[in-house]
Amino acid sequence: MIETRESGTAAMELGGTQPMTLPESAGELAEAVVDHAALAANVRTLRSAAGTQLMAVVKADAFGHGAAPVARTCLAAGATWLGVTRVSEALELRRSGVGAPILAWLFDPARSAEAVAAGVDLSVSSPADLAAVARVSGAPRIHLKLDTGLHRSGCPGEDWSRLVSVAASLESAGRVRVAGIWSHLSHGGRPDAVPTHRQLLMFRVGLDLARAAGLRPEVVHLANTAAVQANARDTAYDLVRVGAGVYGIGEGLRPALTLRTRVVQVRRVAAGRGVGYDHVGRTTRDTHLALVPVGYADGLPRAATGRASIWVGGRRAPLIGRVCMDQVVADLGPEPVAVGTEVVVLGPGDHGEPTARDWAAWSGTNEHEIYTGIGSRVGRRHVGADWAVDRSSNGREQS
Ligand SMILES: *Cc1c(COP(=O)(O)O)cnc(C)c1O
């Protein structure tokens, strides 16, 4: 390892450097341990709070937790649907043997044939998209999406009548099956907010128009995690689409992911020395610095520089200097730790380790971005999954 040192401290630093020991797991320097008992408990909690069917949203590799194993656990815990953004994500789930209904909502409608062949339901927001999807043989299953005020995707109100009437005639002709009608909330956690009232009102009108056109969807769905947690019962309909809550984002839920690594070097550094690029950090006392082999490429936000701390061998230690691409330095103080000491970068918080919420606060983002930012070179290790014992329980092949 090549390092630049302040000349006066070189001898002292060399004296404090110990050989590196790798963690036992598959040559990885860092791993994300995903607790499937926590995922399952969150699904059960949210489903009973909603009192409806639950769609586990496993987009973006299940918020960085690993889509296929997470999907499996959610289905075993009572989820009956899976939600993803892209068709590629849905196909990956099918390839892993998931047979449950899957809805994908952001894809190129001209390229929906593969999704239809795999039995993936597709969201449709416009007559043009509907025409493209209906060109695929096999009566694609679609969910018509109404924009009730999020103004992100979905069919604008003024085009809805036309969309539902075209969909109804295509359905009569056996060209599509309208399996769902849906929308998405802008203020899910605030059932009494004016935008929520507006969205609900518009959704009800949209449903009336769809029924008047002759549509009889299997599932109507609107709520997300925040709406379920806010007990917004009139948003629940047949199905709630829960992402964040599955992973423990939200009150009364359990974070499922622990990002852990090990100290790879420890050195003594005198007071008043700059640490890292541009010497953004500076030691305030004679101290021990631990080199920890994860950085922003692994998901630690660079914006947390100067604020973050990590859990090193049972205690919190502040980071010193910039969060780098591949590594950070923790300021241990007078008491060193051994090379190989366990580091928890984030976890549920039970032992005083930082949480995803802490990292979000340190870097001005949300927990979602912390989880989805965990890099692909961090190995995922899945623990506590029922299906690891009984692989047959939930591995139904797609028909
Ligand atoms: C991500 C997403 C969800 C899940 O929302 P959470 O707040 O994570 O529960 C539901 N619906 C759509 C359309 C989404 O994009």
From TrEMBL:
<dbReference type="InterPro" id="IPR011079">
    <property type="entry name" value="Ala_racemase_C"/>
</dbReference>
<comment type="similarity">
    <text>Belongs to the alanine racemase family.</text>
</comment>
<dbReference type="GO" id="GO:0008784">
    <property type="term" value="F:alanine racemase activity"/>
</dbReference>
<dbReference type="Pfam" id="PF01168">
    <property type="entry name" value="Ala_racemase_N"/>
</dbReference>
<feature type="domain" description="Alanine racemase C-terminal">
    <location>
        <begin position="256"/>
        <end position="383"/>
    </location>
</feature>
<comment type="function">
    <text>Catalyzes the interconversion of L-alanine and D-alanine. May also act on other amino acids.</text>
</comment>
<feature type="binding site">
    <location>
        <position position="325"/>
    </location>
    <ligand>
        <name>substrate</name>
    </ligand>
</feature>
<feature type="binding site">
    <location>
        <position position="152"/>
    </location>
    <ligand>
        <name>substrate</name>
    </ligand>
</feature>
<keyword id="KW-0413">Isomerase</keyword>
<dbReference type="InterPro" id="IPR009006">
    <property type="entry name" value="Ala_racemase/Decarboxylase_C"/>
</dbReference>
<dbReference type="InterPro" id="IPR029066">
    <property type="entry name" value="PLP-binding_barrel"/>
</dbReference>
<feature type="active site" description="Proton acceptor; specific for D-alanine">
    <location>
        <position position="59"/>
    </location>
</feature>
<comment type="pathway">
    <text>Amino-acid biosynthesis; D-alanine biosynthesis; D-alanine from L-alanine: step 1/1.</text>
</comment>
<dbReference type="InterPro" id="IPR001608">
    <property type="entry name" value="Ala_racemase_N"/>
</dbReference>
<protein>
    <recommendedName>
        <fullName>Alanine racemase</fullName>
        <ecNumber>5.1.1.1</ecNumber>
    </recommendedName>
</protein>
<dbReference type="InterPro" id="IPR000821">
    <property type="entry name" value="Ala_racemase"/>
</dbReference>
<dbReference type="Pfam" id="PF00842">
    <property type="entry name" value="Ala_racemase_C"/>
</dbReference>
<feature type="active site" description="Proton acceptor; specific for L-alanine">
    <location>
        <position position="277"/>
    </location>
</feature>
<keyword id="KW-0663">Pyridoxal phosphate</keyword>
<feature type="modified residue" description="N6-(pyridoxal phosphate)lysine">
    <location>
        <position position="59"/>
    </location>
</feature>
